[in-house]
Amino acid sequence: MMDIPALSSAELAEFSLPDGAFRVGARGYRVVDGDTIKIMSGRKSPLGEDIVALRMRFRSIAAPETRKTGWTDRPLIALNADPNRFCPGRRARDLLQKFTRGRDIVISHGRRFDPYGRLLADICVLPGRGASIEEAISLERVMLAKGVVDRFGSERVPDLHPFGDNLLPSP
């Protein structure tokens, strides 16, 4: 059984990027869009806003952009006719939120960053409380299988269970 360190809230507040893989609890991160997750520091700014410790992007997938709601959309939204309802980017974000809601995630990385300063990482979700790291499921594989994202460049997509493929049934 592999042992992946879980970051405590005190460690998130003084965040420095650990080597290899690390685990973040369900309350320690937020989904930004279909391919970006931010790790929260657990601290507030002087204006009362949550402070982000790290922004991460999936290494091997890209999600469509999420259309921003503008002031011209407000009358339609008030009539329950949201013009963004069928936005592919929103669908990807909503699906990622659904898969991660209330679950710990495991991040593994090679200390590479994109031009926007986001850590390029493989991100897995643990299927439930007390789940072992070998049960972690690749979110990249799941999002690709659901058809809401595309491959990103020539990066290799991680296995479905990157920390323990022995869980898959024999062919």
Strand residue percentage: 25-35%
Q: By helix and strand content, what is the structural category? A: alpha+beta
Number of helices: 4
In helices, the fraction of residues equals 10-25%
- What is the straight-line distance between the termini? 24 Å
Shape: globular
* DSSP E strands, number: 9
Give the helices and strands as they follow along the chain.
HEEEEEHHEEEHE
Uncertain spans, ≥5 residues at pLDDT below 50? 167-171
Backbone CA Rg: 17 Å
Give a short overview.
With 171 residues, the chain is α+β, with helices and mostly antiparallel strands. It contains four helices and nine strands, in the order αβββββααβββαβ.
Structure overview:
With 171 residues, the chain is an alpha+beta fold. 18% of the residues lie in helices and 29% in strands. The protein is built from 4 helices and 9 strands; from the N terminus they run αβββββααβββαβ. The chain has helices at 9-13, 74-78, 88-100, 139-146, and strands spanning 21-24, 29-33, 36-44, 50-58, 61-62, 105-113, 119-125, 137-138, 150-151. Mean pLDDT is 82; it is low at 167-171.
